[in-house]
Each structure stands twice: as structure tokens, then as C-alpha cells.
Design a protein that fits this description.
The complex is a heterodimer of chains A (about 240) and B (about 300). With about 240 residues, chain A is mainly alpha-helical. In chain A, about 75% of the residues lie in helices and about 0% in strands. In chain B, the strands form 3 sheets. In chain B, strands 6-7-8-3-9-10 form a 6-stranded mixed sheet, sandwiched between helices. Chain B has a 4-stranded antiparallel sheet with strand order 2-1-4-5, with helices on one face. Chain B is globular. Classes of the chains: A mainly alpha (about 240), B alpha/beta (about 300).
């Protein structure tokens, strides 16, 4: 196995699997939160908005687990000084980011699996699974890179937590993630197309058989998501603070 | 080849009115233990972090093992290992997990990583606690886990930023032995410490930094010469007046009920006889590194007493 891949796997194993083996309840606690809004929307709408709620919850979970990487990184940097050890080693910042992102994904696997199964269940076709998985990976990747980039610029863990919570709202609550983009006026709809979570939610909605806006296409959705992924990975690689200035 | 070569290195942190390090120039020979001494905030950690490619210098040139730390940071990182100041092991991971996985991350194969982990944990007396999560280890054991991680690696240069802080005397000696073994293999070490006995025990050369500038450097015997006298006598404060003592040499108050007189051996002998005649308790010893340190940085204007 190539060394950077092995390094990322070992980081994920150390910070994810070993932690979970010794603290299995963490899995339960982190799995519950993505279902909170799904539960509320399901109850309030009497099940009417369940598709939107499932799509929104999956997007919110991916944003949450992706950005949570930033909190972990901030914690390891400021509280444990573990990042100092990694910086002064052959491990690259992207490998470190990838390892911790995989670790976060492990914590999110139960919730993501259940939500993905719900999407396939409501969609009624196994053929939608590849589209679903690609969308999940694109959003998780871009959110992880964003979390890494943001946290690298934070000097204190509290700042990182605050900024990440704010970004979480900007990406997972305000845009049409839990509601249909068609309810927005034109100006806001175009604005929402600049946000990757809008497209991820529409893709999940499409997978479940909901109608998509006339001015939206799958190619457009992918293009925006890929642009965000490439952009944030590039930012993480070139502009994230690894060696302090 | 020099392990470290610093020429006019300066570091100014963003928003800080004064430099953390100012115009530092020093050379560290390969295969030596080089120790940085200084008060809290003197700039020791800043220097270590710049050498270890964790922090960018503001000005000057700095190379480690012949490689520029800015232009060739990646190559430097292949050759070094660090113990950061105030680092902590991850709570859920055991000493074995830390050292073994770190060796694997650094590229060792499984068999070699197992052998080296076992050897290092045994050397630092962590073997019996190898399966205990770090959250259940004492503070000293946690510190030793970080030391074990750094010293298990096949690096050419080791940066130890206060590695023995919080360790009991036995554990400190275990770390000292490991450092000596590391050096015996021809590898280099940059050490910071507040323990003068540690510095005396381990260092080939030392530098004393105060408020970002080098105030003295050399071997231990070079530094001892900073104080013009070679012997000291501590004598009860209420036994002899300070003016009398000053006629023998330089006098300082130890703050614990005694006055310390730095003097030549003949004067110390006279003072000892005087103390015996007056039945005053006293102790005589050669000038220590501790004395040199206090002499150089403890009494400067603006420093805390």
C-alpha cells in the first residue's frame, strides 16, 4: 500500500476505530443527532414531508460529520499538540486531513447508513445507489476539506467550534436542504444554487422520486459539487496553515 | 556536518510589539546534545519549533542537518522527531498503540515496529502499562509515552522540548539514559529544560537565551567561567553581616535564610574557618550551572527576582 494511504488509514484506525472499540457508546451518541430534525418534521407534517426530511437529514449529517473534522483538528492541535508531532514528520497535511476525515466518517457510519437506506427505500430502486454514494462522497469530501481549512486558521478550539457551528447553519439550515428549492423566489433560488448542499439535497430528493426544478440538471448539480470539492481540497492543500507563521 | 546552523534568526509573532527571538546565531555539531536554557518565555520553544519546521522564521537563515528549513522542509521532516512542549497522548490509546502506530505511520514494517515498540516501552518502563489507555496513566507516564514515540523513530535529529517535565527522578534518569544511547549512535539532540542537573548531565554544549537573545553559549566549563569565582559558600544570614561577606567575594541572597558568597578557594577557606569559629552552619560547593543561569538572567533589570 502506498505510504500516504497507509498513513491515512493508520490515523483513522488510531483516532477512530481504537476510540470506538474502547468507547462504543460514542457511536450511539453521534448517530442520534442527525435524526432529530427528521423526527420533528415527520411528526409536525404527519409524514407528509418525510422525503424532504430524509434528504435534509442526510445532507445535514454529511455537513456535520465533515465539518466535525475541523473541531477534531483544532482539538488535536491546541489541546494535545499532536498536530505538532505530525507537522514535524513526513505526514503531509492532506494525508493527516484524510485520516481524520475517515475517522469522522466511522463515527457517522450508522446514521449515514440508516439515512442512505431510507433514501433507497423511498426511491424504490437499487439502481440509484451509485448516484447516492457519489453524492455522499462529494459532499463529505468537500465538507471535510472545508473543516480542515477553517480550523487550521483558528488559534483556539472555542473559535473553531463557533465558526464551524455558524458554517453548519449557513450550509445545512438556510439553503433549501430540508425544503424544496421551488418554494424560493427566483433570486434566492439562483443564490441557493451556489451552495453545494442545495444540489446534494436535490440529488437525494431526485433519488427518492421527487420532482426536480426545471432549471436544474444532474450535470449542473455534479459540476457545482465537484467544483466545491476541488476548490476546498486545493485550499486545504495550499492555504491551510500547517506550519505556523 | 552541522546538525543546526542558525544565522541571524529572528521571529516576530503577528501582533506582538517585540520579537520572540532576535538575531540568533548558533551552530550545533552533529552527534551532540545541545541544550537551550532560558526563563519562561525566553524564546526556547520558538527556536525549537522553527528548527522542527513547525514555525516559520521571520528573518535569517536556519538549516537542520544541512537542509534549509524553509526550502527543504519536507526533507528535514524525514530526518527528525519531536516531543512537543505540553503535549498529551490521546486518551483512548494505550502506550503500545501510540508507539506502534506512530512507527507504522513513519514507514516501519509491522515486524520492525513491534520490535522497536517493545524495546522502547521496556526501556522507559512503560511495558507493564502498555495496554492501559492513556486516560488511566499518571501524568509522568503520559509524558513518557510522547518521549517513547519520538525516540522509537529512526531519525537523525531529535527535538525534545522539556521532555522530562512532570517525571519522577527515576523516570527522568530513564529518559536521560535513552538520550545518551541515542547520542551514542551518532545522532543529534536539541533539548530544552528548566532542570539544571539535567542540562549538566546531558549537554555537550548549551546556550542561554534571555528575552529572545543569546546571552551566553559554550560548554558547561565555558559557562562556569562567566562567574569570575570558582567556588561558593552558603552561610547563615544572621551569622555574619553582608558587608563583611562582600570583602570575600560577590554576595547574593538565596532567599531561604542564607547568603551565598562566590569567591576563590582561599577566601572560601577563610570564610569556612570563620563560620566554624562562630558555630554557623555553612555549605561549600563549586559554582554550578544553576548559579551561572541565575547570574546571567536572574538579576537583569526588568526580570522577576
Amino acid at each position: 500500500m502506498m505510504l500516504p494511504v497507509r498513513q491515512a488509514m493508520l490515523i483513522a484506525y488510531s483516532t477512530g476505530i481504537l476510540w470506538l472499540q474502547r468507547n462504543p457508546m460514542s457511536l450511539v451518541f453521534t448517530a442520534i443527532s442527525p435524526f432529530s430534525l427528521l423526527f420533528v418534521l415527520f411528526v409536525v407534517s404527519g409524514g407528509q414531508y418525510v422525503h424532504l426530511a430524509v434528504a435534509g437529514s442526510l445532507v445535514m449529517a454529511l455537513v456535520g460529520y465533515g465539518l466535525a473534522l475541523g473541531q477534531d483538528i483544532s482539538f488535536y492541535k491546541t489541546e494535545y499538540k499532536i498536530q505538532d508531532i505530525f507537522v514535524a514528520s513526513p505526514v503531509s497535511p492532506l494525508t493527516y486531513m484524510m485520516g481524520l476525515a475517515l475517522s469522522e466518517l466511522l463515527f457517522g457510519l450508522p446514521a449515514l447508513t440508516v439515512l442512505a437506506i431510507l433514501v433507497v427505500y423511498f426511491g424504490g430502486s437499487l439502481l440509484t445507489i451509485p448516484l447516492l454514494l457519489v453524492t455522499i462522497l462529494l459532499l463529505w469530501g468537500s465538507m471535510s476539506a472545508m473543516g480542515f481549512f477553517i480550523s487550521s486558521h483558528m488559534l483556539h478550539m472555542r473559535n473553531a467550534t463557533q465558526v464551524i457551528s455558524f458554517v453548519n447553519v449557513i450550509l445545512a439550515v438556510l439553503p433549501p436542504v430540508f425544503y424544496s428549492v421551488s418554494t424560493l423566489p427566483d433570486a434566492l433560488r439562483y443564490l441557493s444554487y451556489a451552495v453545494p448542499t442545495t444540489h446534494a439535497s436535490i440529488m437525494f430528493q431526485q433519488t427518492m422520486g421527487l420532482a426536480t426544478p426545471a432549471d436544474w440538471s444532474l450535470g449542473f448539480g455534479f459540476a457545482v459539487q465537484i467544483a466545491y470539492l476541488v476548490g476546498f481540497v486545493a485550499l486545504a492543500k495550499t492555504k491551510a496553515i500547517w506550519r505556523e507563521t | 556536518m552541522l546538525a543546526i546552523q542558525a544565522e541571524h534568526v529572528t521571529k516576530v509573532y503577528k501582533g506582538s510589539p517585540s520579537p520572540a527571538l532576535s538575531d540568533i546565531s548558533l551552530e550545533v555539531e552533529s552527534g551532540q546534545v545541545f541544550t537551550l536554557l532560558g526563563r519562561n518565555g525566553a524564546g526556547k520553544t520558538t527556536f525549537v519549533r522553527m528548527c522542527a519546521t513547525q514555525l516559520m522564521p521571520t528573518a535569517g537563515s536556519l538549516s537542520v542537518l544541512g537542509l534549509d528549513v524553509i526550502k527543504h522542509a519536507k526533507q528535514v521532516r524525514d530526518l527528525i522527531s519531536v516531543v512537543p512542549q505540553e503535549g498529551r497522548p490521546l486518551r483512548a490509546l494505550t502506550p503500545w498503540d501510540h508507539v506502534y502506530n506512530w512507527l507504522r505511520i513513519r514507514g516501519e514494517n509491522k515486524e520492525r515496529a513491534r520490535e522497536k515498540t517493545e524495546a522502547m516501552l521496556k526501556r522507559l518502563e512503560l511495558w507493564e502499562a502498555r495496554s492501559r489507555p492513556a486516560m488511566n496513566l499518571s501524568g509522568g507516564m503520559k509524558q513518557k509515552v510522547l518521549v517513547a514515540m519520538a525516540m522509537a523513530v529512526d531519525a537523525q535529529m531529535l527535538f525534545l522540548d522539556e521532555p522530562t517535565i512532570g517525571l519522577d527522578p527515576v523516570s527522568r534518569r530513564q529518559v536521560w539514559c535513552a538520550i545518551k544511547d541515542w547520542k551514542a549512535e551518532g545522532r543529534s539532540i536539541l533539548l530544552t529544560t528548566h532542570y539544571m542537573d539535567e542540562a549538566e548531565m546531558l549537554s555537550d554544549r548549551l546556550v542561554i537565551i534571555d528575552r529572545g537573545s543569546v546571552v551566553a553559549q559554550g560548554t558547561i566549563s565555558d559557562l562556569r567561567k562567566v562567574i569570575p569565582h570558582n567556588t561558593r559558600i552558603d552561610i547563615a544570614k544572621d551569622g555574619l553581616d553582608e558587608e563583611t561577606l562582600k570583602s570575600y567575594g560577590a554576595v547574593t541572597d538565596t532567599g531561604v535564610g542564607t547568603l551565598r558568597v562566590f569567591a576563590f578557594e582561599s577566601a572560601v577557606r577563610e570564610l569556612s574557618e570563620l563560620a566554624i569559629r562562630r558555630n554557623l552552619p555553612f555549605t561549600v560547593s563549586p559554582v554550578t550551572l544553576d548559579d551561572v543561569f541565575v547570574y546571567l538572567v536572574g538579576n537583569m533589570e526588568g526580570n522577576e527576582s
